[in-house]
Amino acid sequence: MNGPFWCGVDVGSSYAKAVLVDAEGEVAAEAVRRTGVAFDVVAAALRADLLGALPGAAAEGIARTVATGYGRDNVAFADGAVTELTCQAVAGWHLFRRAVTLIDVGGQDTKVIVLGPDGRRKSFQMNRRCASGTGAFLEEMAARLDTTPAGLETLAARGGEAVALSSFCTVFAKSELLSLIRGGRAVEDIALGVYDAVVRRVVEMAPLRDEIVLTGGAARPGGVLVRRFEAVLGRPVLVPAKPQMTGALGAALVAMRGGEASQ
Amino acid sequence: MPRLESTTRMQALMAEAFRECDAAAWDPGRRVAWCSSVGPVELLRALGFAIFFPENHAAMLGASRAATDLIPAASAEGYSPDVCSYMTSDIGAFRRGVTALSRVDPSITAVPRPDVLVYDTNQCRDVLDWFSFYGRQWGAPVIGVSAPRGVGEVTGDLVASVAAQIRGLVQPLESIAGRRLDAGRLREAVAVSRDTSILWRRVLSTGEARPSPLTFFDACVHMGPAVVLRGDPRSAAYYEGLLAELEGRVARGEAAVAGERVRLYWEGMPIWGRLRDVSDLLARLGACVAGSTYCSSWVFDALDPDAPFDSMARAALELFITRTDAVKERILAAEARRYSVHGIVFHDAKTCPNNSNCRYGMPGRLAAGPGVPSVVVHSDLNDLRLHADEGVRLALEAFVEQCAEASP
What we know:
Chain A is built from 8 helices and 9 strands. By secondary structure, chain A is α/β, with parallel strands linked by helices. Chain A has a 5-stranded mixed beta sheet. A 4-stranded mixed beta sheet of chain A has the order 8-7-6-9, covered by helices on one side. In chain A, strand 6 (100-105) and strand 7 form a beta hairpin. Chain B has 2 domains: 6-181, Rossmann fold; 185-406, Rossmann fold (3-Layer(aba) Sandwich). In chain B, helix 4 (67-75) packs across helix 5.
């Protein structure tokens, strides 16, 4: 497979993701790594992962690369950089082809992006200067419950009655967890309450009127976060097959269009 | 971005004004008044006061990125970090014995000691708290105007009420100044302010041109004389020169932002400690902030030398910051049209609720009604602990991309 391919690299705060698309815009290869602290190194490693997954593929077969995410300006081999809001919008339109509202629960921030019926972004909202409602919140709460983010979801899946966390602040929420543990609440119910806290923060960011598409590493299809969103919104939530990859996919599609953000 | 040639002249003029005020503070024959930035300046000019503007000083502390380190000194005295960071950084500077004026002229070692502090609460209550701190420090009288806020229609009754309060300042100010108010000098000061205001409005209006010859960030710097030298003929003379330079740029089609492709409007306070960074970021993206509510706050259309008190009152009441959200919404929609902008950047300044106009649904109403898109950046005027570079950068870049998509 010699290409041509178009490459998208999404260097997020927790994970870096990369996608190659072919001339039909179909995903040819994808890769994920922990971001770490050397953005340029992880980006280069991801590109090697992509090429390694395609027998016969070489860097010369990549016609254009666009970077996105927090480390978008650190991808030395990228031909351009575009924000993840644009990339998520491009991927959302590519995958669903209708007016939807995208919710991307990222590691460091959460975004709500409204797509119009023409696929253009109508508006967007980001969380304020606070980790509540983000993947970082889940990571912090998991650590307080002495488990991993995956372990937190396992616990929450066994929860029955979600504990209501009153705090908007991640640091205060951690101390609130201590009180709940001390009070003898079931850790599974506390874990479920952590997910509800994320959902509550997100639904207050913008009116969620259209169909909802949930993306981000925590938005596992059929997972707890998706189910809690559906419970709060009272309607099904759409989730792409690879919700963690949509930023990188969007970047690859932007690369395919010559690096312009236009839909 | 090409530097405006007038900048050097402006800096010299500002330094001159600061030196004069400092000299007055050391001169037993002179009296110094501190005044809130949209207070009754003309009255003070007519009575011969040297005038110092603490808000200008606080903005200098912010722009020099000194403010964040100074605020804790005020917090330690019980001034919450949630209240106006102009006030807390200024009080912190006082407590630490430093002044931003030293950066302009090292021979100035302190803010000029006031003989009187004159406020107008048309912008916020914090100016009164701020001035009261210094009043207690120096035993100086704190007097001023308690103006109505949330003004819809500027009615005759409101004007009469505020005008009466301004008239009420005359006698105590005369006592402090040691002279009687000369009606002719007051008319003259109001006339000079009006002339300055007209010129400043014309300067800002050059931003309507496409491409714009100046940005909001330029205007934040060049508004200095409109604030500090209001009612002083030197300010009008300065703006004549600046206007000529900008009109020359317009005639030649010279852009403040090379390759201007997106036009924006700024609503709210500047982020003083990141003024250059945000300016450079938007310039790199080809986005020009062509207009702002902030810089328009020193346009006083109502000033009339033939009715000094009533017109000063009306001018203070007509200010954007003092109005209801319904009026502000109409003004913003009109400004968006006037400057042909793609959208509005709302600055939600944590410590300045009175000039953060996105907190009661305004962005949504402007999108749903006149169809003006916007983005909200969360930061602060002076406290950089409340500013997240990455978040602000991402929001602005994403909004510029959205605007560019909307009109390729």
